[in-house]
Amino acid sequence: MIDLRESSRAVLCNDSAQLILASGSDTRAAMLRSAGLVFSVERPAVDEDETKVSLRADRAPASVVAETLAELKAIRVSVRHAGAYVIGADQVLDCDGEMFDKPGSAAEAFGQLKRLQGKSHQLVSAVVVVRDRQRLWHHIDRASLTMRPCSDEFLQRYVRIMGDTALASVGAYQIEGLGIQLFNKIRGDHFTILGLPLLALLGFLREAGIVPR
Description:
Elements: H1 4-12, E1 19-22, H2 26-34, E2 40-41, H3 48-57, H4 62-78, E3 85-95, E4 98-100, H5 106-116, E5 120-131, E6 134-147, H6 152-162, E7 183-187, H7 190-194, H8 198-207
Parallel strand pairs: 1-2, 1-3
Antiparallel strand pairs: 3-4, 3-5, 5-6, 6-7
Helix pairs in contact: 5-6
């Protein structure tokens, strides 16, 4: 039996161009894989916390933080892979000027949800493509999400059920799962919310000849 998924990947991606995702995100890798791209994954050696502290000290907006980190990740991987197209991506949650990082514990996850509930916030996602340590292209997109007012009991139960999954994303939620119950309004591209502006990226890859037109 022919595996249609493997067949579509061969058709939808030019194997002669080396493509690398500079990320440890399973979600981003799954998005590229579902789009039929053939690529490898390499986690970049980047101290994100130190970079964020420096950028925030300079009062850099969320878009600059996300773009800088995305480019830094791609360049770090590009150094080791001459000629490869390296994709770097990053996402920042901005709520009334406060930028959120991934929670480090269940208590932090609960605290983030408490601060976000009843408010609107933005997810700012940046993607950068680098080749031979030079940035070829970048794109930034935003999505707006409004979290409904929630009881402490509901939030505590949510965090308990999600376990370590609640620690895997900024804001301690994932709208593709149980986290959708936290919201009453979402505006923006689904892929941007997941952390990668995929449609814009595919457009660039077509222009670059990596994906057939």
